[in-house]
Amino acid sequence: MRRQRPTESPGLAARAARAAAAALAGLAAAAAAIGAGELVAAFTGPATSPVIAVGSSAIDLTPTPLKEYAVRQFGTNDKPVLLAGIYAVLVLLALLAGLVAVRRPRAGAAVFLAFGGVGAWAALSRSTATTASALPSLAAGVVGAVVVLQLAARYRAAVTAARTPEPEGGGPLAVRTARRQFLIISGGTVAVAAVAGFGGRALSAARTDITAARNAVRLPPPALPAPAVPASAHPAVPGLSSFRTPNADFYRVDTALTLPKIDPNDWALRIHGMVDHPVTISFDELLRRPLEELDHTLSCVSNEVGGPYVGTARWLGASLPALLREAGIRSGADQLVGRSKDGMTIGTPLEALLDGRRALLAVAMNGETLPVAHGFPCRSVVPGLYGYTSATKWLVDLEVTTFASYDPYWVQRGWGREGVVKTASRIEVPAGFAKVPPGTVTVAGTAWATHRGIAAVEVRVDDGPWAEARLATAVSPDLWRQWSYDWPDARTGSHTLQVRATDGTGAVQPSDRVPPFPDGATGWHSVVVNVT
Ligand SMILES: Nc1nc2c(c(=O)[nH]1)N[C@H]1C(S)=C(S)[C@@H](COP(=O)(O)O)O[C@H]1N2
Ligand SMILES: [Mo]
């Protein structure tokens, strides 16, 4: 005979409490999983942490239009936004896993094992992966599964106690005890997970800390110093960007969710492929080469018209063309592929490297040892090309090859092979939608056509005739050129200012608006100002 249960079905409040408990079980298990992953990743490398590995794979797999959209919407915050998105999805899945687990514990555990599997797959699919890269995610999956099984069992004990009459071991006291146990274990799990997670991150940071090694780098004086930049290169207009961009303000564009931390004492650069004399050089050997200073404006192909992904720095480094000539390039080679510590590949046309222009294996930026975010200990810079075809950060390998036999990272994603910088100009003063008094208004900005140089800049108001702007002193074709223009007799009302530049070859910047993909944006920058 079936025994009558004391309550037919739990009330609404009781059901909500049960759902909350199930969700808590899922969240606690997820926290434990992530904590375990971070702890193990302290030993296998920050890039192998499950969340980072999944995030990096997401970056690599994101279709180009979506990536462009993300860069446009979130700019340099695209990475925090991506990580926040991954955590949000994890929380959601953890809640669901908890709800499943209290009914079907094995299914709940399977969800965590599957999480772990996805993380392990992501970590192993990195080009820099070793077998150990899978360990953090495997640990995360197993810990998550074990914890969710434990918590599901506690949860069920509490439910059973509520259904069992007091004489048979149930009743209010038994229920309270079982619930308390569930809450203590869940809370304890979250606490331990937090310690493991944050502790793992801290341990990882300590283990990969290269601050001291970077500070210990002694930069030799340049064998070939850059000429002084004359004051006349920068019009004294308040609000105009400085001629040289301070390192702290220099734009940063890369796919690295965790910055590669390379101890220069462990660093080596291998030069191989279609060369007569393959060589591997150490950081000391690099510093012993004659170092050259090069003032150069670096820009990103993803920069929109008028956008911020451009900056000028004084780079110090060894001549890249000289090194390539010593290695002896074999005939037929036409591409130099730079590989970074984090697995990025960047392909540069060899023609550009051998046509006489300066190009560096840079070790310093604006008088400071290369910042970690900008490629410490060594990156390439090649005037005239966007960063994605020339400026490999955290460079560890140079392979001389052909375009026919290898597509580097961005080319695999549809971007152009050459990456020649297109002529660009922008109005910086007045700022868009600024209010300015009537009369003469100073307009100023920056233009660049790296390696071709800027020969002219013109400004026009409300589709009127183009007027020549005053060009600041040209320092080098590899640098941007600043300009100013006195807009005479500005009248009250809203006006549109436009700018266009002419490069050193005499080509006028085209008006057609094309987006950055696949080989750089074109179009004239304009700003609307209110004369009041
Ligand atoms: N290792 C690595 N190097 C890289 C990239 C990257 O994603 N990874 N991005 C390139 C791109 S697209 C640009 S525009 C420049 C930006 O250099 P910066 O961050 O120092 O300004 O670095 C280039 N070098
Ligand atoms: Mo870029």
UniProtKB/TrEMBL annotation:
Oxidoreductase molybdopterin-binding domain span: 258-405
TM stretches of this protein: 81-102, 109-128, 134-153, 182-200
Keywords of this entry: Membrane, Signal, Transmembrane, Transmembrane helix
UniProt KW Membrane keyword: yes
The keyword Signal is annotated on this UniProt entry: yes
One Pfam family from the record: Oxidored_molyb
SUPFAM superfamilies xrefs: E set domains, Oxidoreductase molybdopterin-binding domain
Gene3D superfamilies to which the protein is assigned, alphabetical: 2.60.40.650, Oxidoreductase, molybdopterin-binding domain (3.90.420.10)
Superkingdom classification of source: Bacteria
Signal peptide coordinates: 1-35
PANTHER family linked: SULFITE OXIDASE, MITOCHONDRIAL, SULFITE REDUCTASE
Protein name from the UniProt record: Sulfite oxidase
Species for this entry: Kitasatospora kazusensis
